[in-house]
Amino acid sequence: MAADETEKARGKRAALCFAAIAVLLGLPLWWKTTETYRASLPDAHIARLDVLAFQLTVPIAVVFAKGSLPAAQQRRLPFADTREEETPLNRKPWVSSDRPW
């Protein structure tokens, strides 16, 4: 019986030592290999951008299909440049002219 108890105590110590080694070696290794690289930011340069005058111009084209708006609504839209243009639509559901697949 004394041999069984010493074997159980030895098994517990071995398991605790294995767990301690896994935590002491594995945790720092995992931490180091999974950390994200953080580059330093040019704080002075970013602070100077705050006073920079910036204006962004984006050309926008609004397209209405013929008959999609009543004439009264079309007149109320504030367009500076209006142009009416017919655009034929390709009714084929595929790009190739041979066959769809």
UniProtKB/TrEMBL annotation:
InterPro entries: PtdIno-glycan_biosynth_class_S (IPR019540). GO terms for biological process: attachment of GPI anchor to protein; GPI anchor biosynthetic process. The keyword Glycoprotein applies. It comes from the Eukaryota. Pfam families: PIG-S (PF10510). Pathway: Glycolipid biosynthesis; glycosylphosphatidylinositol-anchor biosynthesis. The chain crosses the membrane at residues 14-31, 51-69. Keywords: Endoplasmic reticulum, Glycoprotein, GPI-anchor biosynthesis, Membrane, Transmembrane, Transmembrane helix. It is found in: Endoplasmic reticulum membrane. One of its GO terms (cellular component) is GPI-anchor transamidase complex. It is a multi-pass membrane protein. Residues 79-101 are annotated as: Disordered. Belongs to the PIGS family. This is GPI transamidase component PIG-S-like. It comes from Alligator mississippiensis (American alligator).
